[in-house]
Amino acid sequence: MKKVMFFVVIFFISISAEGKILFSVSDNTQTNSIMYVLEPNTGKVEELFSFKNHPRVNTGTIFDISVSSDGKEIYFSSNNAYAYTPFSSNIFRIASDGSWIDQITPDKNSGYWEKGDRTVQGRVYRSNGMGWANCPVFLEGVGMVYSQADGSFVFKNVPDGIRYIVALRPGSNVYDAITVNVGAGGISGIQLKPDQDYRTGFSKPLKVGDRIYYKFSPKTIGYTDIYANSFNEVFDIAKTTSGCSGFLDIKGFDTGKKTGRVAIMDYIEGCQTNRGLYLIDGNGNNYTLIVDMKSDYNWNGGTDVSWSPDERFIAFIASYNWVTYLMIMNMSTGQIVGNMPFGNQYTLYNVKLYSWSPDGAWILFSYGQNNSWYLAKIEVNNGMLNTQNIVPLLNNVNIQSACWAELTPPTPPPAKSIILR
To answer: For the whole model, what pTM was predicted?
Structure first.
C-alpha cells in the first residue's frame, strides 16, 4: 500500500472488529477520488488507489465501493474515461492491494489502451447533412481526435476488436455513438450525428457468484459477468407502476451474497403503487413488498439498503414522520427491530448507509452537510441497534463511498488489465 494519510480519526482501542474499511474521498480538484483503507482496530489510514497512475486518463471519481466474497477484488463505479463510451459512469474492478485495474463495462475491450495497425475513419454531420467541424471524437481504448472542416476524422494505429466510437457536440455532453468491430482492412464510412442523446450509466456494482449486479440509469437493475459478455435485466421500475406521475428512480438496492436475493427501495412520490421496500430473487421473479410504506402515510421515503452477512436482517435508511432513521428489519418475522433517528438537520439526502461489518456486529454509515461528513459505526446485536455504542471513525471528510469487508491477497492481473505497480 501507499503512503499513510492523516485524517482526523477518533478510535477507541477497546472495540475490535474484523475486516477493513474502504472509503473514497474527492481531492481538491473535485474531479478525482482517492480510495483509502482504514484499519478498524488501529485507526491507521493508508492510500490504496486513484486514477493518477492511469496511462491515459488520470482523473475519475470513485463511487459505490464493494468487495467480492473472496476478498480478492474491489468493485466500484467511476466516470473515468467516460467520454469514450455512451455512459456517464462504468464498472471497474481493482486488485485488493490496488496493483491492477480492469474496466468491465461496456465490453471486454473497455479501458485497455493498446496500439495496432488498423485505420478507422468516418464523418460527423449535422441534422441538415452538413459536416460538423471541431467535434471531439473518441475511440474507446485508443484516443481522441477532432473532426475536420468537412466533418471527417481518422484514427490510425487501432487494434482489432469491438469498441465504441463516440462523437460529442462541441461544448456539450450531447453525443452519438456506435460500436465498431475493427479487423483486417480497418473501417471506413462511419456516420455520427451528435444531435439528441444524453448519457446514462452503470452504478453500484455488486459481485455475487459469477454475476455482477448493477443499477443502470435510474430505473433498472441488471447483471453481467466480468467480461461484459451479456447484459441481463432483473428489474425495471417502469414495469411495476400503474399510471404514476412521479419520477421513476430506484432509490437503493442490495443483493445478498448467499442467496442472490435483491432488496430494492422503490419509493416514488406521487405513485400509490410503488412505496416501500421490495424483494425479488436474483433473476427478477417474485416481486414482493416487505416494508409497506403505502398503507401508512407517515412514511416519507427511503434510500440505501444493505443485507446483513448472514441475510437474517436488512438495514435501510427511511424517513418516518419527517424524521430520518437507520432501521433494521428481521427477515424471519418481518418486523422492524432496530432504529436510530437522526437530528432534524438531517434528511434522506445527507445520511448514507454503506454496509455491515463482515461479522455482522456493526453497521457503517455517514452523515453530514456540504463537504463536512462524518463516518461512523454503530453496534448491532441480533438486529437491535445499540445507540450507546456509536464510534466515530472520520471527521470532516468529503466521503463519496465506503465499504467494510475482508481483504485477501489479490488474484493475478487478468488479461487486458492495466498494471499500476
So the answer is: 0.93
What pLDDT is stored for residue 15 in this prediction?
38
271: Cβ contacts below 8 Å, ≥ 6 apart: 241, 244, 245, 246
Return the percent helix, strand and coil in the chain, to nearest 5: 0, 50, 45
What's the burial of 155, exposed, middle or buried (CB within 10 Å: 0-12/13-18/19+)? buried
Q: Strand pairing partners for 196?
A: none
236-259 in b/e form (b: 16+ CB < 10 A) is: bbeebbeebeeebebbbbbbbbee
- Cell numbers found for residue 18: 474484523
408, 30 Cβ separation under 8 angstroms: no
Q: What is the DSSP letter of 412?
A: P
Mean pLDDT of the chain: 91
Distance between CA atoms of 212 and 91, rounded to whole angstroms? 9
**Three cell numbers written together for 251:** 432509490
Q: How large is the average pLDDT for residues 14-41?
A: 81
Structural contact between residues 387 and 369, judged by C-beta atoms closer than 8 angstroms: no
What number is the average pLDDT over the span 342-353? 94
What are the angstrom distances between the C-alpha of 266 and each of 63, 289, 413? 21, 10, 38
Nearest to 262 by CA among 314, 225, 301: 314
State residue 3's pLDDT score.
Answer: 37
Starting at the earlier edge strand, list the strands of the sheet with 288-292.
252-255, 262-267, 275-280, 288-292
| Span 71-126, pLDDT tens digits | 999 999 999 999 999 999 999 999 999 999 999 999 888 988 888 999 999 999 99
b/e sequence 175-212, b meaning 16+ C-beta within 10 Å? bbbeebebeeebbeebebbbeeeebebbbbbbbbeebb
pLDDT at 172: 86
Distance CA 204, CA 40 (A): 24
Residue 91 to residue 64: CA distance in whole angstroms: 10
pLDDT greater at residue 234 or residue 17 = 234
Domains of the chain with CATH codes: 118-192 (2.60.40.10)
